[in-house]
Amino acid sequence: MDECDGTTAEITDHVKTGSPEDEDGQPVEPTFCIIQMSTITATYGYALEDLVEARVAAWNWVGMSMYSEANEDGALARTVPQAPDPPTEGEETSETQLQVDWTDVVGNKDGNSPVTSYSLWWDNGDDSVEPETELINDDVRTYIITGLVPGSYRFKVRAHNIYGPGEWSDIATIRASFVPDVVATMTVALNSPDEG
Fold first, then answer.
1. Which residues of the chain does CATH 2.60.40.10 include?
2. What's the CATH architecture for 88-176?
């Protein structure tokens, strides 16, 4: 490990085609400083889509050069995904099953890194049972839970990317229920205008 502008980071040597040559005609091996994105955002306070700026200096047996100017383009800061919209009730919800749907985390809400999976949290609405969480592939936007009794259930969802799990959505309450039976008989009574 070496120091990278005040941050301890892994220094990786890498020979690239077309690298500059030294005075003996030998390729100069560029050195890359690798800093975890979590360090860039947490330690240095970079926010989503901030330009990650870097300056470099060279050392030899005589001493150290001055630092270069900071880059003006390049990598943007990335983070975990932001909270998605709350889940919604799907069309296949009945008295014994719930279909839960949610929308993609799109634009920069994905933290500038593709979503790798989703977590779905749910319980029966009164904290009397341990909540369930299912990890769902990144291309799935609906989930069906079967074997339920009629009642209200609470759901929330969050997205994951390579930097970790994002924020949970707001909680949505979805009811496992059924269409009521047909009314057997109906009585109609008419009131005269005098009776109000």
1. 88-176
2. Sandwich (2.60)
